[in-house]
Structures are given as structure tokens and as C-alpha cells.
Amino acid sequence: MKRTTATIAGLAVAGLLLTSCGRSDDAGAGGEAQSDAISDGKATGTIEVWAMGTEGEKLGDFVDAFEEANPDADVEVTAVPWESAHDKISTAIAAGKGPDVSLVGTTWTAEFAEAGGLMPTPEGLVDDADFFPGAKSSTEVGGTAYGVPWYVETRVLFYRKDLAQKAGWSEPPTSWDDLKQFARDLESKGGAKYGLNLQPGQTGSWQSYLPFAWTDGAALTNDEGTEYTIDSPQMAEALDYYTSYFDDGLSMTRTLDPGELESGFADGTFGAFISGPWHTGLVEDAGLDDSQYAVAPLPGKDDGIGTSFVGGGNLAVFKDTDNADGAWKLVQWLSEPDVQQDFYDEVGDLPSVQSAWDTGELSSDPQLKVFGEQLQEAQSPPAVPTWEQVAASIDGLVEQASRGDVSGEDAVKQMQSDAQSIGTGL
User: Fold this and answer.
1) 3-state secondary structure 62-106
2) For residues 310 and 135, is the Cβ–Cβ distance under 8 A?
3) Where is the composition biased (Polar residues) (predicted)?
4) Which one in 74, 100, 160, 163 has a CA-CA gap of 20 to 30 Å to 382?
5) Rounded to whole angstroms, what are the CA distances from 249 to 168, 210, 253, 404?
6) Taking the chain (426 residues) in consecutive chunks of 10 residues, what is each chunk's mean pLDDT?
7) Residue 251: what pLDDT?
8) What is the DSSP letter of 378?
9) What is the DSSP letter of 194?
10) Which fold has domain 4-154+310-375?
């Protein structure tokens, strides 16, 4: 698991040929027909790819196997920094001068599809049932898929196993009530200063809060994605539960400095926290081993496994590509289970294709199995073009609620008001 540290920490998701690909003249994003089905043949021509982070650094050599199987194809990979990727893709779409294929953050897909920059996924390119459901939904805008999930990540409970045993817990909590008692016991009996570290607002706190709301049954939009439905009893109840950890002194009320969580987890300041697979390497780098810490699925509200956040990266083909045929062939190849296993071995990206978890380290490593189990119960945010704007509003209101400046009910009402003003963009 340590190999995932450099790969996923920057962001927190990815045989046959096209006869033709295209958009119906009168269809817009969310109303487009899928591109034409693909036919037999090998890829040819240049396929330009943009990829970010470690994926961008490693993909160029990795696709040598694809080029060997398709000797008339030439894959050119450009590594793009994550911090500039969104604006670079937006500019490319506006100018009609993008690559053939790009790695796209899961929360960007709807925005770029609505802007008219992405090509709908061809019929029959992949089997939708092969992918984790939450990851697949991140590619769908108004019922139309734009690309496929390439790699995934999700959040689970990290806890100090030795402190939990000292506190009388031989198994991790499986309900909200248990989680609260678990945090109390880690403090009072295990010796932790804070039982469970949660993010008290600021950028990205929606990724920590929304899993509690999803577990409680909340839905952020209607089924069509045309209206936000944030103002619900489930959203308010989940926020009140979330902020109770700050009210009760079980979680630190300020945002941590870089490295503070890992060092605090190692020295016993924090008994538990919620995060993704990259943190296995980080806490081990801080001095812990698997006899001292463990991971577990997020607890359900009453019992069982709760719903977590699923992120990662999607592979999308640009509408202005000059080589749709080769581009979709490359996407299809990167979606094959054995190729995804090989890419995990090379980079550490968790595969989006479920069958890729059936053999090797992905099937036998105890920590990886927890992440695979959690991915069966994980959701992505709504695939609507305005999500990033609405997420910023949620972040700010989670922070206000965590400070005790606003109740969960009032915070959720304001989230809804802000979201209505913004609209879904569909």
C-alpha cells in the first residue's frame, strides 16, 4: 500500500475499434446519444494523451505494450501538473485544440461535458457492470456517459489498533453510536488526546461530511440532476452528528498543518481519522507498523458498512480529436482487468474494474481488501457542471457549523439557497 502515497495524494479515479464517433446535431450534454459502436481492427496514427501527477510521469513507458500490439499507433503522453490541469483543459476545449485523450478529475467530467468538450462513450466499449457503481456514475451526465473510470480511491477509518485494544475494543465500530463511543474510549481509556480527527471546514471538507449524509440516505439532486435537493432532514442530521465531535472535544477544531495528522497519529495525539489509501504509506513513514494501526470500513448509521466518498480519475476523449478511433482503443485497453492490475503494480492506482481485484496483492492484502469492500458502498458527488461551486458553499458552511456559529438545519438551508442560486447547469 505504501506505493499509493505519491500516486493518489495529489487528488483524490481509470480490442474493438470505432467505425465513427460523433454527436447528434441537436443534442447537448446530458442529452446526447452514445457514440457509434466500435468495430474490429488495430489502432493507428498518433494518440495524444494528457495525464496528471504520477500517472503522467509513468504512462508514457507503460503504453509501450499497447504500441507493440498496435504497431501503427504512436502514443504521446504529456505530463500536466494537477494544479494547472483544470484551466489547461478548459482553455483547450474553448480553443478546440485539446488532446485526443485526457485524464479528468471525477468532479470535472460534467463541467467539461456541458462545455461541449467531451465525446460520449461508444456503445459496447466497456461493460458498465465491470466498474464500481460509484465510479461509473461519475462519468454520467444526464444519462449519457463521457469516458470511463480509470482508477479509484475511497475513504475508510484509520485507527490505532493498539490504543483501541487498550480501550477495550477488539473490533472496529459498525454504527454511528459505536463510533462516538469508540472516540470517547480512545481518549478516556486509550490515552489519545482526540478520539477522531475530522476536518472542521475549509476546502474539501465536503468529502468528509457528505459520507455521513449519504449513509443517512441524503440525495444532493433529483434523479435527473436538474435540481439540488440539499435541504433535507438527513443532511441536517448528518451535519449535527458530524459537528458533535467538535462540540464534545473529540476532534480538533482547527485545520491541521501539513504532516501534523501523521505525526499526531503516530504519537497517539489522534486515535483515529478518516482518509484514503495514500495515508497507509504516510503513517508508516511516520513510524507506525500494521501491529499498531488498522483500517476499517466507515460504520453505518445503525449497523454495517456506511457509504463513503469515491474519487479518482476518468479517461475522456475530446470531441475535437482527429483520432477518435485510436483514442477509444487506448481507453478500452487501459480498462482491461489485467492491464489495470499491471498499472496498479507499476503506479499503485486502485483499479476501477472490479475483477482486477480478484488476484495478486489486490486480493490478498488485508488493507487493500478493506478499500475494495468500501468501494462497494461509495458514492461520487452529482455529475453536474456547477458542483465545484456548490461544494465551495458546503465547505464554508461546514466550517461555520463546526465552530458552533450555525445549526445543522440552518447550515443546510443556506447550502440549498446557495445551490439554487447557482443552479445545476443542466
Assistant:
1) HCHHHHHHCCCEEEEEEEECHHHHHHHHHHHHHHCCCCCEEEEEC
2) yes
3) 414-426
4) 100
5) 21, 21, 8, 12
6) 42 30 40 61 96 94 97 97 94 94 93 94 90 93 92 96 97 98 98 97 92 97 92 98 97 91 96 94 93 96 95 94 95 96 92 93 92 95 92 96 96 97 90
7) 97
8) E
9) B
10) D-Maltodextrin-Binding Protein; domain 2 (3.40.190)
Task: Report the phi/psi class of residue 111: left, alpha or beta, with left for phi > 0 and alpha for psi in -120 to 50.
Answer: alpha
C-alpha triplet 132, 30, 88: angle, nearest 5°: 80
The CA distance from 256 to 253, in Å, is 9
Domain boundaries, the chain: 4-154+310-375, 156-309
How many whole angstroms separate alpha carbon 40 and alpha carbon 9?
38
Closest by CA position to 331, among listed 139, 87, 54: 139
**156-309: in CATH 3.40.50.1100:** no
Cα end-to-end distance, the chain, whole Å: 39
Q: CA distances (Å), 175 to each of 90, 215, 308, in order?
A: 42, 10, 14
Interacting residues of 61 by C-beta distance below 8 A, sequence separation 6+:
none
Residue 289: its pLDDT value, please?
92
Q: Are 121 and 35 in contact (CB under 8 A)?
A: yes
